[in-house]
Amino acid sequence: MMRSVLDSTDVKHRKTEERCSGESIGNGAASPPSGRSALRRNPGSRHPFIFAGAVAALCAAAFLPSEFIAVCFNSKPRSDPNSNAAVDDGGWRLPGRSSLKRLGTNRCTVDRLWAEQLSPELFEEKYKFKRPLILRFRRGSDGWTDSNRWAKKKLLDQYGARTVGSGRSETIVRTGGHGTDQSSLNEFVGTLMERRDSADEPLYVFDRNFVPQSDLLESIHDMPVSLKPDPVLHDSFLFLGASDSGVSFHRHADAWNGVVYGLKRWFLYPPSMTPPGGVWPGFSQQEWLRRVYPNLTEDRMPLECVQRPGEILYLPESFYHGTLNIGDTVAIGVQWVNARSEWESLSYKMMMIKIKKSKAQGQVLEETLPLAKLMLQLTPDNTEMIMTAGETMIRLGDHDDGIKMLRKAVEKDPYFVVAWNNLAAALAQVSAPRIISANLFSTTGPAGAMMFSTG
């Protein structure tokens, strides 16, 4: 049940301090109903994921008091709590009430530890490749970096002319973790940071070149030994975006993400469970929060939490994750270059086969299918692998078995729009006349948009 806003100022401050120092933050707009035994399905003839948007409207929470913003960000309340005016938080904007209402949550199912509590032995035994973890530092961001180096004026003064790559949640994933819209950092912060598309999603800096070409890594200090960055073994990323920016579900090698300023909401699934709605994504992360999340039963819920300023989240290899920023959020990501677990190593091998341009398409398919099947043996309920195997079978000419696999994927996850899209295309190939559009179920296509808007 969502918490109500209390009338007493003293009680509000006390409750706010508890939320900020404990395991949760916010008063989320899309808290899921509980007590259901299975993923909700549309009983009629409509497509099973179309109805989801209507339910999200039932999940609105009360506005948060300005005192909540003040205590969580260690700054004074603003006279206008809905304002996005800059405050003394590195010069970056804090979220207004509407952003906290839409994007925040009191739910936190990720472990939180003080950094000094994490020994190498505990990390190996409990967390490495196994479960995510949020680390807290006694001095906040200054416990592991020099936060002044990431303040708005300092960052722009020193690096404003540098080029950054930005994009939106879906395109960043589709391009393999690259922001493809190029601009200077000055231009991005000055104008592009609030350039929103028709779905009200802003651009998000997701850049793997900026940090290595700066001296920002030199500001990292006093990290737990298990997470110390190595410029040879690790890639490093700059993440910068306004409220509503983020990245859709994807996975990769072991990583950690440190928020210097702002808030970042995480949604995480282990490799055994593809996120409802799938990957390569059919949904932007905003859209997923509105249309899919409110309808998830407890057994399909993600691990989730809002990461606060100064906290570091350890992201285990192969864990699917999507994020949404709340307020201006500045963060650094450090990721292993190579996969180290068996499952993700198979995935990286399959990816490398696909990008080798010297190989014929048929050879690529023949080499990737055994790898997809092996990954499926390791995670038999992973709908991404079910879809991948089915799609590859079809492209190799085995339409019957391939269609069976795609049907299995959408039966397990009726929100998996890319699997629906592939199934539509496969059925169109074996049906005459061809009357089914391959883009029929794509949320990015006009038909998909029409289906969502009309219900």
* Apparent shape: globular
How many helices?
A: 15
Give the overall average pLDDT. Answer: 81
Radius of gyration: 22 Å
Question: H/E order of the elements?
Answer: HHHHEHEHEHEHEEEEHEEEHHHHHH
Would you count the extended β strands for me? 11
Give your account of this protein's structure:
There is one protein chain. The longest helix has 18 residues, at 361-378. The chain contains 15 helices and 11 strands. Strands 1, 2, 3, 4, 5, 6, 7, 8, 9, 10 and 11 form an 11-stranded mixed beta sheet that branches. Helix 5 (120-127) links the parallel strand 1 and strand 2 (133-136). Helix 12 (383-395) packs antiparallel against helix 13 (399-412) and helix 13 packs antiparallel against helix 14. It has helices at residues 9-21, 52-56, 66-73, 97-103, 120-127, 152-159, 169-174, 185-190, 285-291, 342-355, 361-378, 383-395, 399-412, 417-430, 446-454; strands at 111-114, 133-136, 163-167, 181-184, 204-207, 234-241, 246-250, 255-269, 303-307, 312-315, 320-336. The protein starts with 8 loop residues before the first helix and ends with a helix. The model is unreliable at 1-24, 27-71, 73-88 and 446-455 (pLDDT under 50). The protein has 455 residues and is α+β, with helices and mostly antiparallel strands.
